[in-house]
Structures are given as structure tokens and as C-alpha cells.
């Protein structure tokens, strides 16, 4: 709970109404007010205050870049995005986005909160209503995390990818925990999935709505087996599988890893090439099939053969290891 309080306080400070915001309302060509500090109950309430005081400015979407940290996976939320886009086309952009000045280009901005609204405005050819605030990289991560927590449909694997991106960017785990509002144990579970499952496999599966931590962890453990990655990549390359919804692609991939591998069978012959039987090797056992007479002989000596095996004796000579 402490992490949530800190993150909420950060946003309250960031979006507080300042005199510069009020002054911006009277300006004929408003420019972003680079301010921080203050308080408001929530992001929406803070935005409302800024709207009423003129602290929201219009920004060309062509001048807005995504932040480097990937969170939402594109491609499987088309219906939700289409609905948002249609709403903005009909009613306008009711909730402004949160931007920061680009750290290396003063003529550009980066999105901290409201990535899909920026995308929708860009596709509609509209100016983006925005609040602009200077932010450190860590503050940008926290703002993205707050936006993510407000999305009821953000999936486990999207959260895990965001956690991995935070770590890869060099931010400490404390920042990741605050951004995602999770404890150390849950963060470790997320990172264990992204480390075990190759990024291209995650991308091919997609958002996998409805697939939670337990099944992703099961998948991460299974994909570590020999040949498992190749098996999954081959499956996901199938056009028929690619056409399935994301959660069904995940189910097919997990099922493929759960299928027992066919046991390898080899024929055994004597020195003259006469068949003696077969050996079938499965994942956890070996089955020897031979004629009854030789089988009885082996069975009678199985205990002694096992003793020699455990002692490390030479299987051909029977010689015990020297001390």
C-alpha cells in the first residue's frame, strides 16, 4: 500500500494548478507551462482543474513521440481503440493527455499518460489536448504505471513486459514496484516470465487477455525444455494459428509444450547383426524389449547390475572402481 500512496502523491504534485496555468488561459497562442508541485485528489480531478483554469494546451500530434518504455502490446485491442477513436471523432478529446518536453529535442514531446488518445488524434488529424510537465525518467515511468493501473484490460504479460522495460532502462526495482503497484515477490514473478520466454514468442502470442500469472509461469517453465522454443516458434508461424485470437494462440502454445514427446526407439543387435530386441527411450524411463530367455536372464541379474551401476563399475568388464 505504501508504494501506491507514494505514486499517487507524485501525480498530485505533478498536476497541481499553478499561476502559470491560469495565465495560459488568456494567452492567444498558449505554450506549455513547465511547472510542478501542488495537489489534487486524482489524475482526472487534477486534469479537470487544469481544464477550467486554461492549463491545457493544443499540441500537434506530429511533434509527440512515444516514451521508450513499451507497455501495451498493439494488435489485439482493435475494438477498444476503434471505440475510443469514434468517441473522440464524435465528442472531441474529453480527457487531455500528459506530456513532458522531449529530453533531447526542445521542439518535441513525449507521452507519459494517454498514448492511445495521442494515436487516435493523430489518425483523425486533430490537435492533441495536453498538459505538459517536466519530468525525470523515473517520474515518466511512474506516470505510465499510473495510466496502466487505470486500465482494467491491461494483461499480465503486458505488465511483465513493462516491468522488464523498466529494468532494462536501468531503473531500480523500487521504481518498477511503484510504477506497477506490486511487491517484490510479484515483480520477480513477472520478470521470471520475460526472462524465460523469448521476446519474439511473446510478441507472436500477443496480449493474451484472460491469461494470468499462473499459466504464464507454467508456460515459462515448460519452454525451458530442450527444443521447446523451436516447437513453439514453429507452431506460431502457422498461418492458421496466427489467425486465432491471442488467448487461443497462448493455449495452443502451452498445449504443444505439454504434449508428451514420442519415445525414441532403437534396435539392438549382437556382433553379427542378429536382432536382440529394442530399446525405447522416453523422457523419464527406458523400456527394453527382448525375447523371454534373455529377458529372464537380465531380470535375474538386475539387482547386481544396478549395484555395479551405483558403484560406478565398468559395465563391460564389471571391474569395480579403484579407491
Automatic annotation (TrEMBL):
Gene3D superfamilies found in the cross-reference section: 1.10.10.2830, 3.90.1530.30
Family (UniProt): Belongs to the ParB family.
Domain of life: Bacteria
A cellular component annotation (GO) from this entry: chromosome
GO molecular function: DNA binding
Record-annotated ParB-like N-terminal domain positions: 57-149
Protein name per UniProt: ParB family chromosome partitioning protein
InterPro entries, per database record: Chromosome_partition/occlusion, ParB/RepB/Spo0J, ParB/Sulfiredoxin_sf, ParB_N, Plasmid_partition_RepB, Plasmid_RepB, RepB_N
Organism: Oharaeibacter diazotrophicus
BP-aspect Gene Ontology terms: chromosome segregation
NCBIfam families according to UniProt: parB_part, partition_RepB
Pfam families attached to this UniProt entry: ParB_N (PF02195), RepB (PF07506)
